[in-house]
């Protein structure tokens, strides 16, 4: 099966988009934890260690990802245990899959990796690959280019397996025909809209308002509110406390990362390729030399390339190969290019493809940004690493002090990199700005530990990884608002209910009249008109969505009789639906939309196959989890 998958996966790689390191299976580079390097092991997969440092970093990245996805509503306090377990499971899954694909011979060659990088829009400037942009983007991820390319190669290899399984799964002809029939079904529908205007008695008396208020006064209570004091541990602020950084240390860092700040040389050239036909090397060489003679007589290189070059791709562009870097051309070609001056034409150059005639158009030398130019960047990265190193120690101290001194934040505020803040009053369900946009922060402020017992909260994690401890500053209890404060609100609500009752009553009267044949007088009385019958399909936009949804849930009408049903069209309007007829015709050719639906269903089946494969691989793997090291 895996051989079949490997073969099929090659076609899918043309459209596989390799995302930086931001989806679950790409949160961390496999090379960063397979084979160890960390002092503590959290798990082993077939004897290969997964280290704790990478595990903790992966957990933190998952926290950021989920909080961003939930837009601040992610309750990290309650879900963190599950999140930590899920992260470990993902690391184990990736380790199992990596060992499997490597054993089965899955490989990502340099050419494929290079093509993937060069076609990534993140690394392009005006539609063309930019080496400077590539290095800058990679540096922004705090990685060297070799590290990034290793991670990317790993992810592409896993994508070969995943996409190969998806492509190997197919729907049967019967399944395709059934789906096609359902998608092509149409229904002939008309509907009668009952508008608000049918309601005549909508006045609301003071007695009705008072009675409703008395029965529902609890609904008009002001929310309980609190304000909080909190101490914040921020990596950014912690980095600002790191004052002394020696230039010698930055110089060492610079030299260890010199490749990051070095731009490779580039060349732009044209070429004419002469094939060696039937093994006749002498004839090919003679033809190349004759073309060089013509070029020396100032014939146009582009014209000769277009006429004689066996490289049909570049021949159409006058032999222009565009800009290229070391390693992108065969060795003999590149070695010759390095010796040419701009405008110079080479002697015949032999490669496995034949004989090349090369004209250098332009060249860019290798450049390295000087230390002074990148010193601030190096300093920032150095401080970030120092802050990361300090962060967990300060975080532990903060947690201990929050527990040991539950009645005050004063001692925590004295820790390195800690800042103290306060908020205005806010309600539990009131999404504010800053830290109050995070539901877990608001929930902690109203917890029994903090609000009722008056103690410090536990350490809470923000979306960006910053941590805080909070306690109550002020507390405002809930109070019932006076009738006069909510009278307008109640009046509007009661009026809306009367309108809704009136439209529903008329709608039900119409349904009754339809069964007795007395509908015309009722329609005339309320000035109602049926819509023109329309043939619609299940995703049509011609009808209100509520009408369309209800129409496709109705049964099959028995001609010549229609089926009728009443529905609420909105908070105040009602509608009566008439289903007159239905038809289902399968087209001979599947429509593009249906093809897309079939592909989605196929990929759903492929996902199931993928999970089954993963489950089987895990069952056969020797997996050890060291729970004592996960705490």
Name some characteristics of this structure.
631 residues, alpha+beta, Triger factor/SurA peptide-binding fold, 5-stranded antiparallel β-sheet, 4-stranded antiparallel β-sheet, 17% strand
Description:
The chain is of the alpha+beta class and 631 residues long. The chain folds into four domains: 2-172 and 596-629, Porin chaperone SurA, peptide-binding domain (Triger factor/SurA peptide-binding fold, Orthogonal Bundle), CATH 1.10.4030.10; 185-200 and 483-584; 225-246 and 372-476; 265-365, Roll (Chitinase A, domain 3), CATH 3.10.50.40. The protein is 48% helix and 17% strand. It is built from 22 helices and 20 strands. The strands form six sheets. Strands 6, 13, 14, 15 and 16 form a five-stranded antiparallel β-sheet that branches. A four-stranded antiparallel β-sheet has the order 17-5-19-18, sandwiched between helices. The protein has a four-stranded antiparallel β-sheet with strand order 9-8-11-10, sandwiched between helices. β10 and β11 (354-364) form a beta hairpin. α1 packs across α6 (145-168). 23% of the residues are buried. Mean pLDDT is 84; it is low at 1-38.
């Amino acid at each position: 099966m895996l051989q079949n998958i490997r073969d099929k996966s090659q076609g899918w790689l043309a459209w596989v988009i390799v995302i930086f390191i931001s989806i679950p299976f790409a949160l961390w580079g496999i090379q960063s934890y397979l084979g160890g390097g960390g002092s503590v092991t959290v798990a082993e997969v077939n004897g290969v260690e997964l280290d704790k440092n990478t595990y903790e970093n992966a957990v933190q990245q998952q926290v950021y990802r989920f909080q961003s996805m939930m837009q601040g509503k992610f309750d990290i306090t309650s879900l963190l245990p599950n999140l930590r377990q899920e992260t470990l499971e993902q690391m184990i899954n990736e380790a199992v899959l990596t060992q499997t694909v490597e054993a089965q011979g899955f490989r990502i060659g340099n050419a494929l990796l290079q093509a993937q990088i060069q076609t990534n829009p993140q690394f392009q400037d005006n539609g063309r690959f930019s080496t400077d942009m590539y290095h800058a983007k990679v540096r922004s991820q705090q990685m060297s280019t070799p590290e990034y390319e290793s991670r990317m190669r790993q992810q592409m290899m896993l994508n070969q397996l995943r996409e190969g399984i998806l492509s190997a799964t197919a729907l049967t002809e019967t399944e395709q025909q059934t789906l096609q029939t359902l998608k092509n079904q149409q229904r002939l529908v008309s509907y009668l809209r009952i508008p608000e205007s049918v309601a005549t008695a909508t006045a609301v008396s003071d007695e009705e308002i008072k009675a409703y208020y008395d029965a529902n006064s609890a609904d008009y209570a002001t929310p309980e509110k609190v304000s909080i004091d909190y101490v914040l541990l921020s990596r950014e602020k912690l980095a600002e406390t790191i004052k002394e950084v020696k230039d010698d240390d930055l110089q060492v860092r610079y030299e260890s990362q010199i490749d990051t700040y070095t731009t490779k040389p580039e060349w732009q050239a044209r070429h004419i390729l002469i094939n060696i036909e039937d093994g006749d090397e002498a004839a090919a060489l003679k033809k190349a030399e004759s073309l060089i003679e013509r070029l020396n007589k100032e014939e146009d290189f582009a014209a000769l390339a277009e006429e004689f070059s066996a490289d049909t791709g570049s021949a159409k562009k006058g032999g222009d190969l565009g800009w290229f870097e070391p390693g992108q051309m065969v060795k003999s070609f590149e070695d010759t290019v390095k010796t040419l001056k701009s405008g110079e034409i080479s002697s015949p150059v032999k490669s496995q493809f034949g004989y090349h005639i090369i004209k250098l158009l332009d060249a860019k030398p290798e450049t390295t940004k000087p230390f002074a130019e990148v010193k601030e960047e190096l300093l920032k990265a150095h401080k970030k690493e120092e802050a990361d190193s300090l962060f967990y120690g300060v975080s532990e101290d903060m947690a201990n002090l929050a527990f040991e001194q539950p009645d005050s934040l004063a001692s925590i505020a004295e820790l390195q990199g800690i800042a103290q803040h306060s908020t205005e009053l806010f309600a539990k369900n009131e999404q504010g700005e800053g830290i109050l946009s995070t539901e877990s922060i608001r929930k902690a402020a109203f917890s029994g530990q903090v609000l009722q017992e008056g103690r410090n909260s536990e350490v809470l994690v923000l979306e960006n990884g910053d941590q805080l401890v909070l306690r109550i500053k002020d507390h405002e209890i809930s109070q019932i608002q006076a009738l006069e404060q909510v009278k307008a609100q109640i009046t509007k609500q009661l009026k809306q209910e009367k309108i809704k009752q009136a439209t529903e009553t008329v709608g039900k009267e119409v349904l009754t009249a339809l069964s007795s044949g007395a509908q015309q007088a009722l329609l005339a009385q309320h000035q109602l008109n049926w819509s023109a019958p329309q043939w619609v399909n299940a995703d049509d936009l011609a009808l209100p969505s509520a009408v369309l949804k209800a129409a496709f849930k109705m049964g099959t009408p028995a001609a010549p009789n229609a089926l009728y049903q009443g529905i609420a069209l909105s908070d105040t309007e009602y509608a009566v639906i008439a289903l007159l007829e239905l038809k289902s015709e399968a087209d001979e050719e599947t429509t593009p939309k249906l093809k897309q639906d079939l592909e989605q269903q196929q990929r759903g089946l492929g996902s199931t196959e993928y999970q089954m494969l993963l489950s089987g691989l895990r069952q056969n793997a020797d997996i050890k989890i060291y729970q004592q090291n996960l705490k």
